Amino acid sequence: MIIYRFDKEVGKQVTHFDSNFIISKISRLDQPAQIGCMHLEIGGLIGFHQANVPQLLLIVEGEGWVRSDTEEEVKVQKGDAVFWEKGEGHETGTHEGLVAIAIESEALNPSEFMVERG
After folding, report:
1. How far out from the chain centre does Cα 64 lie?
2. What's the average model confidence in pLDDT over 95-102?
3. Please, are residues 6 and 57 in contact by the beta-carbon 8 Å criterion?
4. What is the enclosing helix (H) or strand (E) of 80?
């Protein structure tokens, strides 16, 4: 399990075409991908299971915790992105609720664009 950041502070300013915004790049995929939005209410849980393909979980609202096969629960919050390798067991939970975007694809390589959370 690796935790990355995609919050505003690690993004880049874009000014092309008279634009004015910050982008935090996440991934470029050249293979099929499945993307979904997960809404965990108070006390919500994505139960422990193995990743069928590499998975990236982007926390876009709220906070919670994640763990993998070999790690204790690690706190995550808005702006964190959690990456699990294919076959890695993992679980996600929250006491207060959270919303996350899940990206699943054999082509995922978060380190290409994202920085690890320190």
Report:
1. 12
2. 97
3. no
4. strand 80-84
